[in-house]
Every structure is written in C-alpha cells, then in structure tokens.
Amino acid sequence: QLVQSGGGAAETGGSLRLSCVGSGFTFSDYAVYWHRQRPGKLRELLVFMSVADGTTNYVNTIKGRFTATRDNAESSSYLQMNDLKSEDTATYFCEVRRYQETIWGQGTQVTVSS
Predict the structure, then answer these.
(1) Residue 61 near residue 34, CB atoms below 8 Å
(2) Per-position b or e across 68-103, b if 16+ CB within 10 A of its CB
C-alpha cells in the first residue's frame, strides 16, 4: 500500500511537502507517478519518475516549482512544492507501477489561498 501525508493549507507563494510511503512491496522496482485532481477537473499527471533510466519528468505547469524525489531505502517519494499558486489547489495522489501492477495512495488535499 501507499500512505500519503503532508499537504494542508498554504498561502500563495508558500511551500508544502507531500510524502508517499510504500509498504508490502519492493519500492525500488516501481516507477513513481504524482497526479492531482483540481476541483471540477479530471485527474492530471504531474510527475513521472522512471525506474529504467532514473529520470524524472514534469509537466510544464509545475516545472521549476515542484521537485519530486524518491528514497528507495525509505520506500518513499516526496513532492516538494514551492511558489504555490491558487490553481495548485487540488487533491494530490501518488502512484507506483510495475508492469501491469499499480498501487495508489489515498490522496491528500492541498489548498492554496491568498
């Protein structure tokens, strides 16, 4: 399973850090994804962390503001969110995938206000 923590409320321009901790599987074997779902919108992919080549890819809307990392020794991934904007208000999800298997975190709410 994946258990998420962090999130909460922040002001515009502020920062938050989300955590995603895995258990019951070998975390290092799985690619990591971060998604969000804004109010009234479809869920969108934000970050893809490859296992094959170790690269991390970001969508343009968060590039330069958000940084995703993984700590395989801790079976964890983190999403550092800086320079938050009101449009970052959303429920954030982590996901891991290996071949046909996928595991989702429960989601965590981030609310950004001015």
Answers:
(1) no
(2) bebeeeebbbbbebeebeeebbbbbbbbbeeeeeeb
Query: Is residue 20 packed enough to be buried (19+ CB in 10 Å), middle (13-18) or exposed (0-12)?
Result: buried
Helix (H) or strand (E) holding 92: strand 90-98
Going by C-alpha positions, the residue among 79, 91, 74 that lies closest to residue 38 is: 91
Region of 13 on the Ramachandran plot (φ > 0 left; ψ -120 to 50 alpha; else beta): left
| Predicted pLDDT at 3 | 98
Tell me which amino acid residue 114 is.
Answer: S
Where b means 16+ CB within 10 Å and e means fewer, 30-50 reads bebbbbbeeeeeeeeebbbbe
**Which residues does residue 106 pair with via DSSP β-bridges, in sequence order?**
none
Whether 86 shows a pLDDT value over 90: the answer reads yes
Most distant CA pair in the chain: distance in Å? 42
pLDDT-derived band at 52 (thresholds 50, 70, 90) equals confident
